[in-house]
Amino acid sequence: MTDTGAPEDGHVHPTQDDPVVTALSESVGGPVGEHAGRARWWTPLRVVVLMAAFGFALGLVQKAPCVEGTWIEGDTRYSAMCYSDLPYLYTLRGFVEETYPYTDDEQVRARYESMEYPVGISYWAWGTSLVTHWLNGSPDLEPRYKMSVGELQTDPEILEETRLYVVVNALGLALLTILAAALLTKVNPRRPWDAALFALAPALALTGMVNWDLLAVALVAGALWAWAKDRPLLTGVLIGLGTAAKLYPLFLLGGLLVICARQRRWRDLGVVVGSAVVAWVLTNAPAYVASPTEWKVFWSFNSERGADLGSIWLVISQAGDLSLSADTINDGSLLFFGLWCAGVLALGLLAPETPRFAQLGFLVVAGFLLVNKVYSPQYVLWLLPLAVLARPRWRDQLIWQAGEVLYFASVWWYLGGFLEPSRGGDSGFYWIAIIVRMACELYLVALVVRDVVRPWRDPVERPVDPGRTDPGVADQDTTTRSNVVAV
Fold it and tell me: What parts of the sequence cross the membrane (predicted)?
């Protein structure tokens, strides 16, 4: 038997630690033992990186039906569940003409809608369009200025260029995925194999190419790694950059507040917050200087939108036949999220031992998603690196992601009109999919809360006994743990 991370190497091997992996290992000889062979080249890092590349490649295969039709043929994007924002935004936001997202040019603004994403994603989308044009031989843009946006979307040459744009982004997002997986293997040197839960996650394969969320995911993985290495300055910089790409990394500061309060690490907290603010400001400054109006679009767009896809607010408004205003939903979301954060704060401060960064981060971000007025299918990526470190158990991760897979299929079928009852009316199955998704997420939340309240149940800190017959059952007499946060 070849071992890629035997206990004698200081690694917790999943075949001795996780009940699901232990059971599966029986088909190839059983759990790793003390006499297992070793392959020096196949380190956990290299294996996890290959897993991440394989998982992302599967996601690209899943998108193949849309690539063949350049995302414009009939309802394939919904029936085959291969939708992606990237090809549409390439033309609809003016990247086909190398339009800078933060320009006040009147002709550009009359022709193209503003980019409704934070600056990090806008920079990425614009930068990859420049790479696409360079790879395509720097085509003459003058004829495009004379075409309508609708004509640009159907022009054969531009359709081919759009495919190239998607390919360029796919390569970039694949590298981000591999980087995130590699960083996660380094968070806890004893448990590098926990990152395999990220690399092989069904949700990663299905949603990685829907939008550019993996940019923020990689930065969050970097922040988890930096905090584990006791580098608060770098942690703050990565959180600030992540917040410039997506808002949710900001909420990780709440988890660090709890940890630093319990461990009296006020200086570290100040360094993290200060460096995060500086990184965020410096990243946003070019966009704001170029056009304050365009920079504000992200904030105004999210403030003014109503109940949207995936949210419990959509279920309430549709099922209850209610007309909830954006202000009502904003106030309700803010209230519930504030109460959720207060609960996480109390849980963290009153827990028997200092919770881990990943646990607190997961709980805060999960609360935000559960009460937010939009819960797009790719938002599961926000939770993924936090979840696999907070509760590294294959059974629990698969239960949670089963709800995500159900929702992933349902949202596209809903948008394609395939879930509409034959006699008309609302698509009740879509509401059920939203509720099931939330229930599966709450299941994982409950397990993480239990691990915080009963730290001897936390699989990350519990020592592994190779002779234990049931590796999923905690040793009840394990009462000591280091208060130093593992991640």
Answer: 164-184, 196-227, 233-257, 269-289, 333-351, 357-376, 428-449
